[in-house]
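Handout, page 2. Input:
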Amino acid sequence: MNLLVLGGTRYLSREVATRAVALGWDVTCACRGASGPVPPGATHLPWDRADAPPPALLDGGWDAVVDVGRLPSQVRSAVAATSSAHWVFVSTVSVYADNSSPAMEPLVEQIDGDVDLAVDPEAYGGMKVACERAVQAGAASWVIARPGLIVGPGDPTGRFAYWPQRLARGGEVLAPGRPADVVQVIDVRDLAAWLLVLAESRTTGTYDAVGEPVAFGDLLSEVAAGVGSPGPSLTWVDSSFLEEQGVVPWAGEGSLPLWLPRPEYAGMLAHDPGPAVAAGLRLRPPSETAPACLDSPVTALTAEREAEVLAAWHSR
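Output:
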């Protein structure tokens, strides 16, 4: 396989390139290289995607392309330059307009222009819709994978890593919402391996690239077991109380990761992995992912703030 990875130096795209090299494929990573070197064994093709495609990209004779891009102009340019290849495009469940449902429709309105997400983070889903349609319109064959929350080694966001690290510390743990609330994550290694299956088999279609949906309480129990802390002392706190206390959902400073307001986000982490599994996706349990996240950076609720919220909950 002659594989072109657009990117290849960070997180998912680097994992894709690394695994493809391990399979013995000819792997070229087209990127600036500003985020670090490409994996050993891969070829670096320097390209700033804001510029015109270099001749080597046009003449590469690629069997498949894997792209995680989010800017429509850059995806359109890359598709036009490599249209004869089989395109594996990594989109997102953020393309769905109704987060209360796990259905694969309707989609948000597409945004054809390139938007700075630092200015308007809500544009992410709409730009990804435009990218999907550019791939569908321009590639000879294509498959679209829409991941939910990607976790595991190398995750720069800490949106999952908070829980392995918190449960490993032990003690009373603030757990958000209800233990029956459904959540799901997918290990970056499993997703990368599956993207290569899609590339080699030239699978077509659109899939939700997600892990098994599980109850939040069960997920935390699995994570705790994975980091050697079985039987955690979980104190489940109502979402309304957390909001009153100023605790932030999902991610970022002062947040409890994976917690989402219900019912408006009840479907965001509850998509069906069945079609992707039937197409070759293999999923490891969260207990196997958790140990790989113990050294990941985390930006979330501090231990001091957690203790304050727990004290307020017990004294209410």
